[in-house]
Amino acid sequence: MLRAVAKGLEAQELILASLALAAATPLAANAQTLPPAIATDPAVRVRAEALIPVLAGRPGYDTLFAPAFRQAVPAPRFASLTQSLRATLGAPREIAQIQPIGRWAATVVLRYERGSATMRLVLDPAAPHAITGLLITGTALAGDTAARIQTDLAALPGTAQLGLYALDGDTPAPVFATGGDRPAPLGSAFKLWVLAETARLVAAGARHWDEVVPVGPRSLPSGILQGWPAGAPVTVQTLATLMISISDNTATDTLLTLLGRDRVDAMAARYGGATPVLTTREAFAIKADRALTAAWIAADPAQRRAMLAAQAQRIAGAPIDPLLFSSGPVASEGVEWFAAPRDMARLLASLRDAGPVVRDILSINHGIAPATAGRFAYVGFKGGSEPGVIALNVLVQAKDGRWYAVTGSWHRPDAAVEEAPFLALVTRALDLIGS
User: Fold this and answer.
1) What is the distance, to the nearest Å, from the Cα of residue 250 to the centroid of all Cα atoms in its chain?
2) What is residue 88's predicted lDDT score, i.e. its pLDDT?
3) pLDDT at 37
4) If DSSP codes are grouped into helix, strand and coil, which group holds residue 270?
5) 243, 252 contact by CB (below 8 A)
6) Those residues with Cβ within 8 angstroms of residue 377's Cβ, 6 or more apart along the chain or in another chain
7) Residues 344 and 357 in one domain
8) Which pLDDT does position 198 carry in this prediction?
9) Do 185 and 338 meet the contact criterion of CB atoms below 8 Å apart?
10) Are residues 125 and 155 in the same domain?
11) Kind and range of the H or E element at 87?
């Protein structure tokens, strides 16, 4: 939701994650890749080939992986994760594809007995070029079906909702949907409402993409604007771009305040969203104060608006602990942003039609593995996560011209959710398109 940065990782490393419905890793939604023109060193293929028997459960972990990786992912954890992959996909067989993302890194597609796994592989540039990073970013089951995806979705603890919608008609048509009509926490995906209202005002001539405005009060990361000088000038398009591509919270709050809460509320309501729409700072401040949290949860929309007005100065000046979420979910089902997956699919269809600037903003961060994204003519994405919540919204155009949305969320109030298994289900839903 409010933190799109990787939790629990060293910045220079990618930790192994199984997307076979069993891992506990951060969502790699903000990963950026280097231009593919940079060829990989031959050692990348050598290490990728050497990885196959290790993923199959045979010896070699201690010599193949760098000490820092082994410390972050001890051998028993690695064995558990790779066993989960084999339980879903069968035994690993061969390298199907290597796509360079730098001299010492590549996206590797590994063919398994019953499907394939896509992984991001990073090597130490120094000999013997041990593996320093391994992230499974997608899996595909041969012969997968909507029914199997829904069965695996139902096995997740807590409440999980997911739908694949065709967007070629007047309203999204579900290819399959589980819980598509139930409002669910969105996390940072609420920022799509702000983008939609920005686009509406630009189309009406009330705002302009190149309009220069000052950066507003700081929120917590994710993002970069919280570290910029107060009042630094930026354009509306810059704010919208940072808000969507790296989920910048300060950019979001600046833009929401510029547009006006009433307007953003109206846009949210048009797409089934709960109102009033909080800024990220307001959400942090309310979550951090037990009395405010209780009052917010007990209030109706009108009372919540009055509460925000009465507490505006207090919220604006309140120090916010950056470790607010370090102990697990914090009011994740009460102080949040809510909408149903079906309504988020409607919103994505509207944003698709909002013009090239909006489509470009949505497509900066694909949020899915490069191998999956490469199957489509267009990919737009906005997700959100915090302890206890993950929401993913993907807009794609198939190469035959048809448009689809995959939208959904997984949440529980009692424990953090593991983003990787849910991302795997979203990837599997995307793999059904054109199959």
Assistant:
1) 18
2) 80
3) 53
4) helix
5) yes
6) 397, 398, 399, 401
7) yes
8) 98
9) yes
10) no
11) helix 75-89
User: Shortest CA distance to 26 belongs to which of 7, 39, 43, 53?
Assistant: 7
Instruction: Indicate the helix (H) or strand (E) that contains 390.
Output: strand 389-398
381 neighbors 192 (Cβ within 8 angstroms): no
pLDDT band (50, 70, 90) for residue 353 = very high
**What value does the mean pLDDT of the chain take?**
89
Which residue among 141, 166, 194 closes a domain? 141
Residue 180: exposed, middle, or buried by beta-carbon count in 10 A (0-12, 13-18, 19+)? buried
Q: Is the whole-model pTM more than 0.70?
A: yes
Q: Return contacts of 261-269, CB within 8 angstroms, 24+ apart.
A: 263/197, 263/201, 264/193, 264/194, 264/197, 266/197, 267/193, 267/194, 267/196, 267/197, 267/200, 268/190, 268/193, 268/337, 268/339
Q: Is 353 helix (H, G, I), strand (E, B) or coil?
A: coil
- Give me 175's structure tokens: 């290819």
pLDDT tens, position by position, 250-300: 999 999 999 999 999 999 999 999 999 999 999 999 999 999 999 999 999
In this prediction, residues 379-393 reach a mean pLDDT of 96
Would residue 20 count as lying in a domain?
A: no
- What pLDDT score was predicted for residue 9? 24
Domain that holds residue 54: 42-141
What CATH code is carried by the domain that includes residue 366?
3.40.710.10
Does some domain include residue 427?
Answer: yes
Instruction: Please give the DSSP secondary-structure letter assigned to residue 300.
Output: -
Contacts of 315 (CB under 8 A, 6+ apart): 281, 282, 285, 286, 308
Q: Look at 305 and 327; give whichever has higher pLDDT.
A: 305
